[in-house]
Amino acid sequence: MPTFRYTARDQTGQLVESTLEASSRRDALRLLATRQLQPVKLTDAASPRTSRSETPGGTADLSGLSRREHLPFLEALHELTLGGLSAGEAVRLLSLRLKEKNLRLLSGAVWDRLSGGLTLSQSLEQIPQTFDRQTVSLIRAAEATGNLTEVLQRLIEHFTQQKEMRQRLTTALVYPVFVCFLAFGVILFFVFFLLPRLQGLLASLGGKLPVSTQIVVGGAQFMVHYGVIIVPLFVAALVALWRWRQSEKGRTITDAWMVKVVLLRSFVLETTLLNFTQILAVLLENGIPTVEALRLTERTVVNRTLQAELHHATDRVLEGASLSAALGQTGFFPDLLLDRLAVGESTGKLAPCLRDISRNYATRHTRRLQALTSIISTAVLLFAFSFVGLIAYAIVSAVLEVSASFKF
User: Fold this and answer.
1) Res 132: pLDDT
2) Helix (H), strand (E) at residue 237
3) What is the chain's Cα-based Rg?
4) 350 and 333 Cβ atoms separated by less than 8 Å
5) Which of 61, 176, 329, 335 has the most CB atoms less than 10 A away?
6) How many CA atoms lie within 13 A of 270 on its CB side?
7) What is the pTM of this model?
8) In terms of DSSP bridges, do strands 38-44 and 3-9 run parallel, antiparallel, or are they unpaired?
9) Residues in a beta bridge with 184
10) Residue 202 vs residues 137, 210, 212: alpha-carbon distances, Å
């Protein structure tokens, strides 16, 4: 019977190294679970390498997985580990009990890798379409310190906050988008349905049309004759702009432009600072070193200009500068935030300080988002009402002008 060498953590968190005999790696992991040991490393004593090609998960089709399964998997795993199960046994149960197809596929892939001798962090690292580098790093730190349940709880809180923010953004944009479509529909109705009939009626009555009516009718005729050309060209221009932005050069130029435009700068900065403080707080709270946490956090920044500045700030921290001083040289962090970071560094409470800052920015971001959507909705409504008022004025003035021409 094969002999396996293992490194595991017992109930007290102490590392235990020994060997055991089992018919397969899967059976060896089950034996460790029955001994209430959490495996950190498991290798064949005769062949020290960890076999990844033998794991069934390596050949499973995981193309249907995405970031959507990230949070539900962590929540289900946390519930089981909170009840006292080891991570491996919890994943095995999830692969058997979950009903949702993608979650069951994900759990099965993770379990296949665990049963092949990999640790939980190594197993998650092999599924990058679902688990990002921050999650993998935190799970690896949890395995080293033996506080997996606590780390899972913090990860769940962090990703739940991000999910709620995305939902608030989507909900806030529903009404403006609806108003835009409604206003666009009203304009199309007047231009392509009502105005041609009005024009025929006024032409049959004779008389000179007022200037306002001539402008509206001329605009309608222009849209009727040239709209089939203008609209496709406009859509093609938008598609070309979007594709150019996807390129490295286009992304760099547009990101630099976004942090310079007055109306966009504050929104982009607040969103970036919110994500930056949230993620950095989670990493630091779970024992990730400051420099490594900064490197992981900067990769999550969407704007390339801000990402480059944060990269330079991390280099300054490596050279010995304080975090507040390094971030201050970027020119993007508010003075009040830098002062609070300096206080957190001096008192040794940087992570709680970042957590408080992220809460404040979340509140400010929500208020700004609500104000922005209100402004957009009001502007669209005013435009629609103004356009309808212009058409109504053109109709009334045309009727009065034509009726006046019949007086003797």
Assistant:
1) 84
2) helix 211-246
3) 31
4) no
5) 176
6) 16
7) 0.63
8) antiparallel
9) none
10) 74, 11, 14
pLDDT digits (tens, 9 = 90+) for 316-353: 998 888 999 999 998 888 898 899 999 999 988 888 99
Check residue 51 and give its pLDDT. Answer: 38
Q: Nearest to residue 156, comparing CAs of 282, 292, 296, 302?
A: 282
Q: How many Cα atoms sit within 13 Å of 121 on the Cβ side?
A: 20
> Could you please report the per-residue DSSP string of 101-167?
HHHHHHHHHHHHHHHTT--HHHHHHT-TTTS-HHHHHHHHHHHHHT-HHHHHHHHHHHHHHHHHHHH
> In which order are the strands placed within the sheet that holds 38-44?
15-21, 3-9, 38-44
CA-based nearest residue to 369, from 274, 245, 305: 274
Q: Which two tokens stand for residue 124?
A: 């998650």
For residue 184, give both structure tokens. 């666009």
d(CA 243, CA 251): 10
**The pLDDT of residue 159 is above 60:** yes
Domain, as residue range, for 225: 160-408
Same domain for 280 and 389, yes or no, is yes
Q: What tokens were used for 320?
A: 């010995």
> What percent of the chain has pLDDT above 70?
89
Whether 154 maps to a domain, the answer reads no
The verdict on 332 and 369 lying in the same domain is yes
Taking the C-alpha atoms of residue 150 and residue 395, their distance in angstroms, rounded to an integer, is 70
Residue type, 206: G
